[in-house]
Amino acid sequence: MILNTKSICKRLRDNIITLNHKRSPLLCCIAFSDNGATLSYFRGIEKSAEKVNTRVRQEILKGKSIKDTITFIESLNHESDVDGIIISRPLPLGFQKKGIKDIIDPVKDVDCVTDENLGRLITGDFKYIPPTPGAVMEIIKEFRIETAGKNTIILGRSDVVGKPLTMLLLQKGVDTTITICHSKTRSLSSYTRTADILITAIGRPKFLKSDMVRPGSVVIDVGINVKDGKLVGDIDFEDVNRVASMVTPTPGGVGPVTTYILLLNVAKAAKRK
Ligand SMILES: NC(=O)c1ccc[n+]([C@@H]2O[C@H](COP(=O)([O-])OP(=O)(O)OC[C@H]3O[C@@H](n4cnc5c(N)ncnc54)[C@H](OP(=O)(O)O)[C@@H]3O)[C@@H](O)[C@H]2O)c1
User: Fold this and answer.
1) Quick check: 1 pLDDT over 90?
2) Is residue 17 a part of any domain in this protein?
3) Is the residue at 62 inside a domain?
4) 6 domain-assigned
5) Is the CB of residue 135 less than 8 Å from the CB of residue 164?
6) Domain CATH number, residue 237
């Protein structure tokens, strides 16, 4: 079964429109370069934002120093019209070390990247659900995928996907047993073949083949990669679809849900003010 996420997107859209009925909130998208990938990421957000009465402002900070960037983000924190702030990844090297993301006011951190908001995932007392892990949880809920007592394997341990997703899946009520694999994991297939639920977030186009998947398992593909000019996931979709019981497509699976969760966070941020 191919997991079509259109119904989840519709539900989220309706929810956001209701929250935004009085005022159109403003999301500020910061990038450090105007390359194609960044611009198409922002265009995707803008397209979805238009449907849910949300304004998007792009700020391309090309060539700005770290000091000026910090001052700029602080000014956005104080700008009352700005409800949410996101920073496009990857950040330039020097900027990563300086903790630029933590300059964002946690109340406006709708991408859930600051240490404060990420840390809150440990106790479950969080303001915003991180968009991509949140999208995976929505898919699990929507398709009533059984998690209690099941074996869940996550490929990838990034701060954006693997680690926060682990925190969400560890919550009481979800009750799954989790193993996280990464680039230094030995004999990856010996883990992936034990999975009832397999979640891939490694950024390797069509990496996961059917012989790495337990027949009948659920496969959720977070990866978004470009191969031969096409968008593909971390799984070899046609091949894996032959053995899995449920599988998300790329494009059209996790990605669109992620964008609407981000926009839901913007709507919540606006209400919070
Ligand atoms: N659908 C969405 O909304 C959405 C959102 C965000 C990201 N993504 C996509 O998700 C993918 C991952 O993104 P990310 O930001 O998490 O990437 P990332 O920061 O580069 O992290 C990749 C992770 O995968 C691991 N890894 C790499 N190669 C591996 C291999 N051969 N076997 C096992 N593990 C391996 C890495 O291990 P080490 O830690 O050992 O290096 C790392 O933990 C990308 O394709 C990205 O475009 C999609």
Assistant:
1) yes
2) no
3) yes
4) no
5) no
6) 3.40.50.720
> Is 115 a member of any domain?
no
Atom of ligand 1 nearest to the CA of 258: 3
Distance CA 207, CA 250 (A): 13
**How far is ligand 1, taken at its centre, from the CA of residue 65, in Å?**
28
pTM of the model: 0.97
Q: Give the residue-averaged pLDDT of 115-132.
A: 96
Ligand 1 atom closest to Cα of residue 184:
40
Phi-psi region of 231 (alpha: psi -120 to 50; beta: other; left: phi over 0): beta
Question: How far is the centre of ligand 1, averaged over its atoms, from the C-alpha of 132 (Å)?
Answer: 12
Probe ligand 1: pick from 179, 224, 259, max atoms within 8 Å of CB? 224
pLDDT, one tens digit per residue, over 154-200 is 999 999 999 999 999 999 999 999 999 999 999 999 999 999 999 99
What is the whole-number distance in angstroms between the Cα of residue 270 and the centre of ligand 1? 31
CATH number at residue 43: 3.40.50.10860
For the chain, where are the E strands, in sequence order?
26-31, 55-60, 84-87, 151-155, 177-181, 197-200, 218-221, 225-227, 230-232, 246-247
- Report the nearest atom of ligand 1 relative to the CA of 207: 31
Tokens of 118: 């990420």
> Ligand 1: which residues within 6 Å by Cβ?
132, 155-158, 160-162, 181-185, 188, 201-204, 222-225, 254-255, 258
Domain hosting 46: range is: 23-105
Q: Model confidence over 59-102: pLDDT tens digits? A: 999 889 999 999 999 999 999 999 999 999 888 888 877 689 99
